[in-house]
From TrEMBL:
A single cellular component GO annotation: cytoplasm
Keyword rRNA processing: no
Name this polypeptide is given: Monothiol glutaredoxin-S3
The organism's place on the tree of life at top rank: Eukaryota
Organism from which the protein derives: Cajanus cajan (Pigeon pea)
Length: 80
């Protein structure tokens, strides 16, 4: 699912900052923190403008209902 979310952001013209938990020495600690935020499964966890948005299901819902673009624009991640 992480691949699909990355691709979605790239297709929107956004260059997301990506943290691969399985490649980070603090990955397990970050995974537990994400679960405490309510992200279950913990990946992909999406933040826009420093605010936790949710997991893949939430992001796809926002994309399908048109609110993801506005959210990205408001955060300065998308200029068009």
């Amino acid at each position: 699912m992480s691949h699909a979310i990355k691709r979605l952001f790239y297709e929107q013209g956004v260059g997301p900052a990506i943290c691969e938990l399985d490649e980070d020495s603090r990955g397990k600690e970050m995974e537990w923190a994400l679960m405490r935020l309510g992200c279950n499964p913990s990946v992909p966890a999406v933040f826009v403008g420093g605010k936790f948005v949710g997991s893949a299901n939430t992001v796809m819902t926002l994309h399908l209902n048109g609110s993801l673009k506005k959210m990205l624009r408001d955060a300065g991640a998308l200029w068009l």
